[in-house]
Amino acid sequence: MKVGVFTPLLSQLPLDQVLTKLKTLGIDTVELGTGNYPGDAHCKLSMLDDASARATFKQTLADHGVTISALSCHGNPLHPNKDIARQHRATSRQTILLAEKLGVPVTVDFSGCPGDSPDAKQPNWVTCPWPPDYSDLLKWQWDEVVTPYWTEHAKFAADHGVKIAIEMHPGFVVYNPETMLKLRSIAGPSVGCNFDPSHMFWQQIDPVAAIRVLGDAVFHVHAKDTQIYAANLPTTGVLDTKAYTDERNRGWIFRTCGYGHGESWWREFVSTLRLFGYDNVLSIEHEDSLLSPEEGLTKAASLLNSIVIREQPAAAWWV
């Protein structure tokens, strides 16, 4: 297992400087955004039609001894605004094609969220089954929008030898292990999850237990923490819509690894991933509003590198 970084937190730096910086932190694998919500600061889809640009890009990575764990294009391909959906779908397809050309096995995306009808303007995320309008809406979303798109898109990815890791995130139809496995049952084995424990914590889902539910459906992992503010939960609950920067009044906020849960928890998390066959990357994603990107990245890298080294399986004495 390796420690990596999702590079949008360093989007102000050119790729060469990003790679130089990460090597000083003991990191030699990156997750790169290609558009949609993460942006494309370090990986341009225009490389698809430019062999020379791809060669230069690959040489830059090779010169630094850095590999790519995933290409990420988190978007809403089911958005009821057809222009937005069309743009996000195109980016996702092009990301799969670029991953194929670069030999990257995984792309990361969101499942998306439709509206409430073919004429809707905004997404409509259903969070309860009653009144019955909501149950009817949820069934319509899955039957008429989610299933057709993801059946076709998953086949497209499989045909190009690429897996899609869906990040379980509230606001989209896939937000927990149950909905992740529902989509996987529809779309097939080329669709799995990008497991971000921070999104489990604030839904009151134990991430370690969730790994046991998902098993080999875990394709990629984000390393990000959440701090729960118990004093605010009686007021806010976990469905807190205040800005992430309103830290004093929120029920929870995203934190750097170790600032929501300590080293012993992260050791158990890594060990459980290994137990269920995951041996890829822990890709640091910085969204901690109380720490600068520099401080958050440095502290997360230090914590995770110590755990991954410590947790490396020892050579068997009986061999």
Automatic annotation (TrEMBL):
GO-annotated molecular function: isomerase activity
InterPro entries: IolE/XylAMocC-like, Xyl_isomerase-like_sf, Xyl_isomerase-like_TIM-brl
Pfam family, one: AP_endonuc_2
Record-annotated Xylose isomerase-like TIM barrel domain positions: 20-305
Record carries keyword Electron transport: no
Keyword Isomerase carried by entry: yes
Ranges that cross the membrane: none
Keywords: Isomerase
Protein name (record): Sugar phosphate isomerase/epimerase
